[in-house]
Amino acid sequence: MRRIYGSVLFTVLGLSITAQQNDFEKYGPFNAAVETDLKVIFKEKTAKKVFKLDLNYQAGDSALYPRIGELKELQALKLNGNGVSDYPKDFDKLTNLVYLGSFNNKLQSFPPNLKSYFNLMHLELQHTVIDSVPASIAYLNRLQVLRIGNTNDTLKLPNTLRYLRALKELSIENCVLDSLPSEIFKIASLKYLFLSNTNTRLLSKHFENLPNLEVMVIENNGLSNIPFDIYKAQKLRIIALRGNKLNKIPDSISQLNNLSVLDLRGNPMSREEIEILRSLLPSCDVKF
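Below the sequence we write its predicted structure tokens.
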């Protein structure tokens, strides 16, 4: 799977799923200016009018970075390559945040006092040194997108993920999960599930708890078995299982009437097994 953030184009198995413009650009008041310079913001004393802030490869200024917490009206914040490892002072005062993304910063944890961000809908933390998702993430009851990736460490997930009742996308990539909580399979609102390079070797059988799941990408893991009950996620359209250890897919997959793509490339499956799947799924593009 490949994500291009310029147009937010997901290319899965040669099939393009076109999303809206850059995630950051989707959030905040219509036509709100995107501020990019903290020096200008605080020099002109316009802090109260800042709704969107994009700090792209700007070093965290020792005097100004801690003052981001003063931007009480801020709704969308993107940090990228700023050389910071912690959040600014009074960060939990940013109660209007709807979008928060940090890329290429060695952040050590999730934002402090998560219950403060009751408006947050999109949270993305990439290339951090975070080793666990706090149980308090359950307070983010408006969160729709959660993406975590490239931690270069073991990542522990809490058992409270099931309380994210608005979550539509969960993406965890290039992190070694110490386990895959069954609670992921209790997020009824989930539409997109991405688990790539996460050491995911077993899946819960409780697909009946994912009635809205449409896209499931579980690639480059050690999966050797797919639960028979996968057919209970009746809205599945795309399943990508590249780079695993699968030699068979349960025949029950034929009951997924909406399935249009099944990608099994990089698995030790026989040509005979692939032909059986193609006969079971005549309207599905089975890639091998």
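Confidence is low (pLDDT under 50) at residues 1-10, 13-21.
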